[in-house]
Structure of Histidine kinase/HSP90-like ATPase domain-containing protein:
Amino acid sequence: MDRQNEALRWRLLTLLFAILGLSWSISAHAVTVIEEAALTLTLQGQAPARAETPNTVVLPYHWDQRQGAVDGEARFAFDLPVADPAVPMALFVPRLGNSFRVSVDGRELARFGAIPPGPYDDASFAPQYFELPPSRSASPRRVEVTIAAQAARQGGLSPIVTGSVDEVRPLYERAEFWHISGGRFIAIVSGVLGALSLLVWLRQRESIYLYYGLGELLWSVQTVRVLFTHAPLPWPWWGVLPLAAFQAAIPLLCRFALAVVGRDDSRLARFLGLMAWVAPLAAALGILGPWLWLMPLWHVLNLVVGLAMMVTVLRVALRSGVLEHRVLGLAVVLIVLTGARDMWVMRYSPQAYDMVPWIRFAWVGFAISLAWVIAERMRKDARSMAQMNASLEAELDRRNAALEDAFARERDGEKARGALEERQRVMRDLHDGLGAQLVGLLRIAQQPGAARDDVALHLRDAVDQLKLTVDAMHDGDGDVASALGAVRYRLGPRLQAAGIDLHWDVSPLPVMTGWGVRECHQVQMLLFEAFSNMMTHSAATEAHLNARVVPADDSGGEVIEVELRDNGHGFDANVAPPGRGLTNMRTRAAALGGMLMLRSQPGQTCLCLRLPVPAPGRDASDVKHQTGTFAARDTHHHRLT
């Protein structure tokens, strides 16, 4: 009587949860539930060896709980009442397997898989529906259901619902929706959330995303088992894989919850990590052993660590005012309580075999809550990163402003230094050139009997040099042709007065990159020295100045060649002439990175200045550095007599 009362209470609970949509319902239909059947057992291929006394059993019949770690077959027989032979009847079985055969009045109605079951045959999770052939009379019909079960494979038979097709088929469709469609939905949600979390982990390498991603993916692997009647892997591996995934998912998600509240370094968190590693071994021992007591023990261990995790999370959530901690606390309470309920029902309820686990549906809310926690954490991290970026940008703007001020001061200092250097250069030129000429002119003028023409000649030189110095103060940007033109403009009247006819032939010349005032002035003063010597010592009547671009001798580049010729009486180039005019010209050519070549004979003197043109991307300072040594080395080689 107590057993019947207990069974009645559990049936009432089943009806209650059917109203909530968590299981199939019989409350609103005039159907019959078959809960007792005559049983004939065959264990491990032997003849019928044992039957319960009396020869009936109460359904559901869970093979693993009733028979333990053995394989075998069970034949259930019962009489099906017929109210109206004209009404088509159907059978709805929530769980049946692993493989089965259904017979009505001695004729086979349906069959699934081989008996004993093959390695890929497992229908024990899918609801089954059968339509009976028409009855010829109102007498009860004899139904026999034979199952072939393997140890640890969760075979068995649930209570059977019978009635008209119109009454039974909606119940089957509802059960299929919750079992199959619901399982498919859960697997997809868990798989997507797990994959997204692992992608985030690959980018950020934070352990919480790894725990959550692996936990969700493993849960989706465990859930997809209900979707297969023909397993993708042979037994027992198709049993080990989902069970190992389920056993590892729980400690991983518990550790995720601890990591969210900042307890990932606790001993409980480390123990959960150890459980996740050991879970596949425990699943393999439980299935392959088969030590069927190992899985209930592992479930108890999961419940204990889950309760410990729940207490830790709730303690942190109550002390902190962080919203995601509180949401996580509620989700943890939900999943732990539903897991405890399922474990209690599976252990002590006679209806355990055909129940729908609450944790399967509670997991959706739990997963969504955890996904929201991750999203909220990522949102805060993104906001913190944005604030950090804004702070860094402000700091960079401040640093840039300081650097710009420093650069501006440096530019001002550079301009001041440049102006100072230019003043010093002008002072040196005036002192060394014009000043020396004026001092020499003063000495000449102070001598008794000084010739007026000599004084006038020296004054003209001084004035011309002063004009060239003033011209050089205007930056020509490396325009050699303009520098040459300034010399012609300043010395042309003096050459004409000296009776020298100047022929000018200057081709288009490239701009000397990196040249400034100093370089242009060096070219002008070099030519000034050459023309002065011509007017003073050569007694020439004709002069030619040619400037053009020619290929370099050995470097593969180009040079500007400035050649000055006259028809004077010449001199011996091997004998150093008096004065420092030629030495000064060579010094100026070397300062420009060029070469000065001189040849002289009676009736012709030729002075040739070769200036290397900087290649693209290089300036004249680079050219001067590379060609200075060569120019000094080859000056004597190119001096011709």
